Amino acid sequence: MKKLVQVLLALFLAVFAIMIFAPKALAFCGFYVAKADTKLYNQASQVIIARDSDRTILTMANDYQGDVKDFALVVPVPVVLEQEQVQVANPKIIERLDGFSAPRLVEYFDPNPCIPMPVFQPEAALRGAASADEYGANRGESALGVTIESRFSVGEYDILILSAKESDGLETWLRRNDYRIPRGASRLLQPYIRQDMKFFVAKVNLKEFAAGGSQLLRPLQMAYESPRFMLPIRLGMINATTEQDLIVYILSPNGQAEVTNYRTVQIPSNAELPVFVKDEFAHFYKDMFQTAYEQERKKVAFLEYAWDMGWCDPCAADPLTRDELEQAGVFWLNANAPNNVFISRLHVRYTRDTFPEDLMFQETGSRQNFQGRYVLRHPYTGEMNCPAADEYKRSLNQRFEQEAQTLAKLTGWQIGDIRQKIDFPGTKPNRWWRRIWN
Fold it and tell me: What is the pLDDT of residues 56-102, one digit of tens each?
């Protein structure tokens, strides 16, 4: 009996030591229950930029809706690209990055107040972890100042790399060669011509597209070297009728990336919300983002996620494997070293008025972790028979009111409507089934 007591005492001391001395990251006991991914938005363009020094692999997912025979893509690029520098990418890789980095909802459950437990603050833990006919290529392009620098096909795309001397000439050339671009495009093409940039022009090869058997156009991926760390967005505004959402995933071996010609701010995060938000998370996040966007005068890039891709806490999806990182364009991985990839997820909502310039980026070197993260704390609903239970019950009203106020401030929702959805202690009978169903 004495020996048994000694064993139990030793076990208790070991468990106590783990709770006291465990690092804060291990104390993060929440788990992922929902995510605010790009499916929230009707039209959300997505781009992956994998960059180290002057080397870049850019992956563009297009959300084109319509007959593929009408598809034409014109993108300014800093250099002349050859065929071996362009390929089609697996669309699943963008879904993986989206899932991994999406803002997430986590939940905790209050312990029985009659059984004292070590108190950990999840926010503190997070901070601590803290052809010629096809293109009409010979129809007077020299007179228009347009030169075909390169021509090739990749997958279901026929691609030209063009240079131009005048934007009017380039617009005329594109129209003569059956590219359906909006009227007035020359105004937006001119700045890129002045910068001596080239133009990546893609059409769908209908025969190859039909042979592939897919119903969707695959992302295009290009590799190049240039000191320009930028993303052209102005051409996408030519025929835009509403605000555009753009998600940029920047992968770097060094650290967090930010926009330099507009402010980069963190999305509101680490807010404790009423538990009913679990069933309305998509609605909540869209309204919260719009509120923050308006408060920042519609002229910022929001950082939604910044993290070392070797791990996550909580995980909205498993970290990408080495093979998946390479599919995303990461070219600096060493077979004999751990994955050295830091992801920055930037969300920009823009119009031609609020974002008159293309996006310019820089790496900061900071590896501080950040995530858009929203917390639900479920109250304890079991039997409570101790003096501490009375104080716990009284504290819930104050906590629930604070959560309601936070939700109203973040979203602009009416506080009265929010309160009606919250089960304040004492406002409803203590029905016998509630304990087990909750």
Answer: 999 998 666 677 777 778 889 999 999 999 999 999 999 999 999 99
Name the nearest CA neighbour of 150 among 199, 193, 221. Answer: 199
Residue 43 in any domain: the answer is yes
- Domain limits for position 313: 22-70+82-130+216-378
* d(C-alpha 222, C-alpha 314), whole Å: 32
- Cβ(307)–Cβ(370) under 8 Å? yes
pLDDT band at 279 (very low <50, low <70, confident <90, very high): very high
Residues 46 and 98: beta-carbon distance below 8 Å: yes
Whole-structure pTM value? 0.82
Note the pLDDT tens digit of each residue in 216-274.
789 999 999 999 999 998 877 766 668 889 999 999 999 999 999 999 999 999 999 99
Q: What DSSP line would sit under 199-256, residue for residue? A: EEEEEE-HHHHHHHT-SSPPPEEEEEE-S--EE--GGGGTT--S-EEEEEEEEESS--
Domain count, the chain: 1
Residue 117, class by beta-carbon neighbours within 10 Å (0-12 exposed, 13-18 middle, 19+ buried)? exposed
- Quick one: pLDDT at residue 220? 93
Strand order in 230-231's β-sheet? Answer: 230-231, 359-363, 257-259
**Phi-psi category of 298—alpha, beta or left, where left has phi over 0 and alpha has psi -120 to 50?**
left
Tokens describing residue 64: 């084109």
pLDDT(301) > 60 = yes
* 111 part of a folded domain: yes
SS3 state of residue 145: coil
**Tokens for 149?**
């620098």
Answer whether residue 429 is part of any domain: no
Question: Is the torsion defined by CA of 307, 313, 319, 322 positive or negative?
Answer: positive
- What is the widest separation between alpha-carbon atoms in the chain? 101
Q: Which of these, 183, 149, 151, lies nearest to 167 by C-alpha position?
A: 183
- The pair phi, psi for residue 417, each rounded to 5°, is -65, -35
Alpha-carbon span 299 to 238, nearest angstrom: 19
For the chain, helix (H) and strand (E) counts, in that order, are 12, 20
- Is 197 among the domain residues? no
